[in-house]
Amino acid sequence: MGKNGNFNFREKVDQAALSKPLFSRMDKDIPSSIVVFLVALPLCLGIALASGAPLVSGLISGIIGGIVIGSVSHSSVSVSGPAASLTAVVLASIASLGSFDVFLMAVVLGGIFQFILGILKAGLIADYMPSNIIKGLLAAIGIILIIAQLPYAVGLQDSGANFGARDNLLEQAIAMFKNFFYSLHPGAVVLSIISLAIIIFWEKSPLKNFKLLPPSLIVVILGVFLNLLFKYIAPVLHLSEKYLVNIPKIDRVSELVTFPDFNSITNPEVWGVAITITLIASIASLLAIEAADEIDPHKRKTPPNRELVAQGVGNTIAGLVGGIPLTSVIVRSSVNINAGAETKLSTILHGIFLLLSVLFLSTILNLIPLSSLAVILLVVGYKLASWDVISTMYKKGWNQFIPFVVTVVAIILTDLLIGIFIGSLVSIFFLLRSNYHNAFFIENTKIFKGETIRLELSNEVSFFNKASIKNSLWNVPQNSNVIIDATFSSYIDHDILEIFEDFKTTFAEENNINVSIIGLKDKYSAGKELDFVREDIEESKERSTPQEILDYLKEGNSRYVDGKLVSRRLRNKELMDFINSPPLATVVNCIDLREPLNVMMNTGIGDLIPIRAAGNLVDSHIIKSIEIACKQQGARFILLMGNSSNKIYLKALNEYMQNGYKNPDSLIAEALKAQQIPNKFEEKDLHTYADLITRWSIKESQKRIIKENPYLRERISQGKLGLATAFFNRENGKIEFSELYDSARVS
User: Fold this and answer.
1) Is pLDDT of 269 > 60?
2) Which of 155, 242, 265, 273 is an S-S bond match for 106, by CB 3.0 to 4.6 Å?
3) CATH assignment of the domain containing 644
4) Other beta carbons less than 10 A from residue 289's beta carbon
């Protein structure tokens, strides 16, 4: 919060400080880390195989993604590792560079480039990704998971070790259904049905009170136990090694490590591959953390620049020790969240478990049925692409739903990055279409010949609004009055300003259209930081002392003069909320002052009760009206307000002069009697004397209120009611406020 309770958007929030302490939820993080580890293990192997890299390189990347990136990143739920989005790049690059160790040099450089991008704060791209695209990405991943894991769930005979990888998803789906019925393994089907039932009904049964292990981990343990049992009591259901996890046995730590060919650093092709890895891995990671934050139950925000730094460190180390490129991965992150992870300890532990499994636990882990792991991913996929997700997006309207659907279909038919690109283009189209309609607000919905049309511009009016504004203005009928209100605009593009000029000087003149442009600044600067002001009903109504109310009115006029008005356009319900609340002040002014008081002092709707008369000198009727406004309606402040160049006084003075300075109008008679102006004057001094009469009238009115009304006098003397005068200068928009009437002078 900034000064005076206003929001200060320059204050930076440390997202890491908002995260829970690392060891605060071990009861959640340890079980979830085991689930993620069990899912990540075959994925690491499958992606390495699909990439044409040694199987162990996928495990190395998984270990680094968990331990290194998990430690450096400020994400609480994201999990990094080798990703399917890079398989084609890795496969082609190894082939073009000639050897795996040369490719590792490109991975090292790519990691360094990512680190530099993070330092340069290039992660801001993540903040501009539309939410419907992120939801489309998640739904597409969910559908891909369901299609890709269903073969493992039912034990199709052509399901090799290529777990989680895909060359052509559509062909894979067609082949799957073609061979579905005669390729099933009964044991895999039985395990999948049992596992699915446990996960689905776990939260609906008393088992939900069992908090020691999550249902996903119980499914894995039960799968191992049942498969061992099938071997002896139902051999037809027993799953052989081809349907189980397959971890290569590592006898020595040195077998894990492959060093890059540092001599290849001068090879231009290596640098080209490094740049490709940097771009794809960075975009994929930023999309993944946005998606993970979207489904995080706590809606925490991952700092994108810090994530690029973490990914850069991870890829650099992976390249140095023989790992393939890695990114933040949506599938593993989704599993992590669904398993109940609360902090990044889960991510780090899953990396440690990967390392231990490779070194010591391969024999035990090779007993896990792939069907048990597939069911876990099927449930995750369904949650990402459920009917509830689709119907929710549909209810948001076509401008949200169509880009969502296009993103889903494009990702499924192509790949993640191309699909995101296509979906983003469609989303941009709808964004431009929305801007076409939202650049301004027309007060009148029906346009009649000769009617006044008020066009109020929005906060920012860009080049994209050019067509809609021009189309609206050039369709204004002849002989109309047009007011273009730029009061609330902080930025107007130069092209829009040219449209206004062309309309006023050509089209309007040729069609007898009277044009007024108000609130237009001399200069608009794009990208200028704005001071945001928060003014809501409660905050404005809680001002209790007369001095606070006076300060509030002064600040509002300052915003009016500076062009930083708080918008007060409200829906009917909000309008009634304001009207039903007590007003702050009653303002007594001349009917010559037609400028809107709530705009000139930037107050809330209903804050002010205007009391108007011809001239600024109050009489008994006006004083009674003031009393009712304060006593019955709750106003706590009285403002007697005059304005410069008062046409009513100017007309009265001119008639007085034309009549030979005889028989003055009653509006100026008392001012003449009080000798506030000379009995005779020249025409050139009319404006000066009109202002003098105005200033004298509001001061005299102040005295009359105190003298003639006991209730108001008493409330003012007690400090419960404020009284001040003000003079509005039409030339610069400023209001000169007097100090509060001194209650010590009230007798």
Assistant:
1) yes
2) 273
3) 3.40.1050.10
4) 32
Is 146's pLDDT higher than 60? yes
Angle subtended by helix axes 330-338 and 345-359, to nearest 10: 110
Q: Residues 6 or more apart from 226 whose CB is under 8 A from it?
A: 190, 191, 194
Cα 559 to Cα 540: distance, rounded to the nearest angstrom: 15
Cα separation values, 659 from 655, 681, 691, Å = 6, 13, 21
* Number of residues that make up the chain: 747
* Residue-wise pLDDT tens digits, 32-74: 898 888 888 877 876 786 677 887 888 899 999 999 999 999 9
The torsion angles phi and psi of 729, rounded to 5 degrees, stand at -95, 110
Q: Is residue 72 within 8 Å of 317, Cβ to Cβ?
A: no
Query: Which of 426, 460, 487 is where one domain is finished?
Result: 426
Q: For 621-659, give the DSSP string.
A: HHHHHHHHHHHTT---EEEEEEESS-HHHHHHHHHHHHT
Task: Give the model's confidence band at 161: pLDDT under 50 very low, under 70 low, under 90 confident, else very high.
Answer: very low
Query: Does residue 408 belong to any structural domain of this protein?
Result: yes
Q: Tell me, yes or no, whether 459 and 568 share the same domain.
A: no
Q: How many domains does the chain have?
A: 3
Q: How far apart are CA 458 and CA 465, in angstroms?
A: 10
Pairing relationship of beta strands 514-518 and 585-590 according to DSSP bridges: unpaired
Encoding tokens for residue 220?
């894995």
Angle at 582 between CA 579 and CA 583, to 5 degrees: 85
44 token code pair = 């690491």
**Are residues 575 and 689 both part of a single domain?**
yes
The closest of 613, 606, 609 to 589, measured between CA atoms, is: 613
Note whether 123 and 202 are same-domain residues: yes
| SS3 sequence of 475-539 | CCCCCCEEEEECCCCCEECHHHHHHHHHHHHHHHHHCCCEEEEECCCCCCCCCCCCCCCCCCHHH
Task: Express as a percent the part of the chain with pLDDT over 70.
Answer: 81
Question: Which domain CATH number covers 475?
Answer: 3.30.750.24
Contact indicator for 78, 292 with CB cutoff of 8 Å: yes
Left (φ > 0), alpha (ψ -120 to 50) or beta: where does 219 sit?
alpha
**Residue 128 carries which DSSP code?**
G
Task: Give the pLDDT band of residue 566 (cuts 50, 70, 90).
Answer: low
Q: Spell out the residues 6+ positions from residue 152 whose beta carbon is closer than 8 angstroms to its own.
A: 159, 163, 188, 370, 371, 373, 374
Residues 613 and 729 in one domain: yes
- Residues 412, 445, single domain; the answer is no
Taking the C-alpha atoms of residue 60 and residue 637, their distance in angstroms, rounded to an integer, is 73
Q: Which two tokens stand for residue 108?
A: 């090292």
Decide if 350 is inside a domain: yes
Instruction: Judge residue 275's burial from the number of C-beta atoms within 10 Å of its C-beta, 0-12 exposed, 13-18 middle, 19 or more buried.
Output: middle
Examine residue 18 and state whether it is found in any structural domain, yes or no. no
Interhelix angle 26-50/215-233, rounded to 10 degrees, is 60
Burial label for 73, CB within 10 Å (0-12, 13-18, 19+), is buried
pTM for the predicted model, two decimal places? 0.56
618 lies in the same domain as 734: yes
- The stretch 150-155 carries a mean pLDDT of 83
**What residues contact residue 155 under an 8 Å CB cut-off, 6+ apart?**
184, 185, 186, 187, 188, 189, 239, 243, 371
One domain for residues 262 and 290: yes
Domain interval for residue 338: 49-426
Instruction: For strands 79-82 and 440-442, give the pairing.
Output: unpaired
Beta strands in 430-490 (DSSP E): 440-442, 452-457, 460-461, 481-485
The identity of residue 239, as a single letter, is L
CA 643 to centroid of chain Cα atoms: 43
232-271 CB burial, b ≥16 within 10 A, e <16: eeeeebbbeeebbbbbeebeeeeebebebbeebeebeebb
* Final residue before a domain boundary, out of 368, 403, 426: 426
**Percent with pLDDT over 90 in the chain:** 26
For residue 633, tell me if it sits in a domain. yes
